[in-house]
Amino acid sequence: MKLDDDIHNYYEHLVVEYISELGLDKNKSPDYLADLCCLTLNQVPPRYIRYEVDMAFYLPQTERLQMKMNVEQAVTKSIHYLDQAAANKKEA
């Protein structure tokens, strides 16, 4: 078994999905997106899984909605942080 192939954090999927919903993958640089993902994932608890299908069948709807809300809040906070850092850099 290779852990890096068999196990992943389900929040990674949710974060990438939400970033795409916002269209940020179309107008932000790869470096910005990588920083955004790291900042966001550090704000949410890890949820390790082997198969996506497990989450589809065994995750209660209330927990799924809470995870989505956690991601939305964390992405918003991370965007604000990155935008502030960029603005401060321009001023310096």
Automatic annotation (TrEMBL):
Pfam families associated with the record: ComFB
Protein's name in the database: Competence protein ComFB
Natural source organism: Alteromonas sediminis
